[in-house]
Amino acid sequence: MDFRLTDEEEAFQTAVRRFGDKVLRAHERQIDVEGRIPPEVLGPMAELGLLAMPVPTEYGGMGASATLTELAAEEIGRGDFSMATAVFFLLEAGWGHILSRFGTEETKREVLPPVCQGKAFLGIATTEPTGGSDLAGMRTGSRRDGEAFVLHGEKAFISGVEEAKSLGGGHLTLSKSDRGGFNLLYVPTRSAGVATQRFVNMGRMGISTGGLTYQDVRVPARYLLGSEGKGFEYAMEGFSVARTFVSAACVGAAERALETGIAYIRDRKAFGQPLGKFEGIQFELVDLWTQVEAVKWQCRRAAWLLDTYTLRGDPSHRSEVDRAVAAVKLTAPQVAFESVKRVMMWFGAAGYTKDVGLELGFRGIMSYLVGAEGGLNIMRIILGRELLGREYLPYK
Ligand SMILES: Cc1cc2nc3c(=O)[nH]c(=O)nc-3n(C[C@H](O)[C@H](O)[C@H](O)COP(=O)(O)OP(=O)(O)OC[C@H]3O[C@@H](n4cnc5c(N)ncnc54)[C@H](O)[C@@H]3O)c2cc1C
Question: How many A from CA of 49 to the centre of ligand 1?
Fold first, then answer.
């Protein structure tokens, strides 16, 4: 067992941290206010190879490991505290990986290079207005008709609907196949019959969330991932990858919150002493730091498991991967949210202002508590299933 980063990983981490410190921090408020990630951010991200990092080089990516991508996600979560850039990053990484693993050659050559250059968006569409946790209950359907699939239905709370319309691109879209099982299809947002709607969120404003409706959309058969009826499996692999990167972004945000808090409680005085001298605050810092440190290594281990098994198409350690990913997605957002909340309180009234900016993280991380990439209780259900057995699932 060796916990050190390799020289290559360390150099990469330093480069992404520099990008986060110089570019992301300088733009995070603008991203929040304008509701978009500007080209001054996406351009350098593409140049650094940060967009859809795990995609193989022949399709424009850097063929990065999950471990390297996890390290980048930590830095991006630390750099843009609003989480918008982290969401953009992890969607491209997670779903770019799935498209490169299961997409047809033609689709990969068409879709992935512009995604890696930041000239197109790639996301995931599973959630529907009737619910996101119970995917088996979805209503959107698809049927084969000659050289196309015909898609009908509606998705809701989908990240990147505006970006996919304005930049180009689309979403890997899960639907029920009329022949049984699920189809995962790449659906360009500009296809005839697709309509979009933007929702007004409370945070991570730089990336849109919205609805997609499909009115008998004809999706070319080459846009089907893998085999007909098997889409659920591919989506679940994508969620394992994306949830690991979400957690990494939460680790980065939590570290930034604590660094901000440490600098403040060293200087700010009350009752003639720096706040950091009061055990009520010092011990809180120590407890939070311990939790963030634990979750960081949980996260890096999840990435290691993905590299060692899942990304190689090896299902032999599926249960171990599922446990590691669900555990970290259950813990990381809670630890990050608690870290931001506590540091806001150390700042007193100033913590409640936009000048200090902790509220950016507060609003952004909340998205992972309410449900983005799977609600906390869904992580608990996965872990309960793994610890007790399938017969203890709360549903059939
Ligand atoms: C900002 C944001 C961006 C998002 N982006 C995307 C996206 O890009 N693509 C996409 O497909 N989806 C996206 N989602 C949707 C997300 O996947 C869903 O929010 C999530 O799956 C939960 O679905 P739901 O919101 O419909 O809640 P529901 O499924 O209605 O659940 C409501 C609550 O009940 C809990 N719950 C559900 N079932 C159980 C149970 N059996 N036992 C105990 N508790 C339970 C849930 O954990 C949740 O807290 C996004 C969500 C947000 C907030």
Answer: 31
